[in-house]
Design a protein that fits this description.
This protein is mainly alpha-helical and 173 residues long. The chain folds into 2 domains: 52 residues, Arc Repressor Mutant, subunit A, CATH 1.10.10.60; 119 residues, Tetracycline Repressor, domain 2. Helices cover 72% and strands 0% of the residues. α5 packs across α9 and α7 crosses α8. It is globular, with a radius of gyration of 18 Å. The relative contact order is 0.11. Keywords: DNA-binding. This is TetR family transcriptional regulator.
Length: 173
């Protein structure tokens, strides 16, 4: 990566980190650009060179999280295997701050879209005329809701226990 792109990525990461920090005390929709640049130590012009709006910062965070998710997913894990579900719980535990910040900012639908897109990329989308296509959305929605409940509850259970419980519920045991 060239120096300019790397510098822009660092600015974007600093702005995202500052946004997540500010989100600990207030709803993301109430964070102002002036607060964000002050907290991040980034010039206002740098904000506008990299982003058009606060929503773009949120989008960058979600895109970054999705990229990291795909980079870390074991290549040989079947989409609904214990290994894949365990990876998901471990990954989202590591990124709990961003998931919870976006959830609390009522950007949960966007995060659910990310989880669903991950399911589609891993398991393939179903044909529109197949009733089986609903399974993918069921799985993604159930996982997302269980994940948020676990994260908000302080992650008292291990990712292993969560993966086992999720699979138990998903299989109707």
């Amino acid at each position: 990566m060239d120096k300019r792109k790397e510098a822009n990525r660092l600015v974007k990461d600093r702005l995202l980190d500052a946004l997540l920090d500010l989100a600990q005390g207030k709803d993301l929709s109430r964070v102002k650009v002036v607060e964000l640049v002050e907290r991040s130590g980034v010039a206002r012009a740098s904000f506008y060179r990299n982003f058009g709006s606060m929503e773009d910062v949120v989008g960058y965070g979600i895109d970054r999280m999705a990229r990291l998710y795909h980079e870390g997913m074991p290549a040989d894990a079947a989409p609904r295997s214990r290994e894949a579900v365990l990876y998901r719980f471990r990954f989202y535990r590591e990124h709990a701050d961003i998931v919870l910040a976006f959830h609390r900012a009522h950007a949960g639908t966007t995060l659910l879209d990310v989880v669903t897109d991950c399911e589609i990329s891993e398991g393939g989308d179903m044909p529109a005329n197949s009733i089986a296509r609903y399974e993918l959305y069921y799985f993604a929605g159930a996982f997302y809701n269980m994940l948020v409940c676990w994260l908000e509850g302080g992650m008292r259970e291990t990712p292993e226990a969560m993966a086992d419980e999720f699979l138990r519920l998903a299989h109707g045991v």
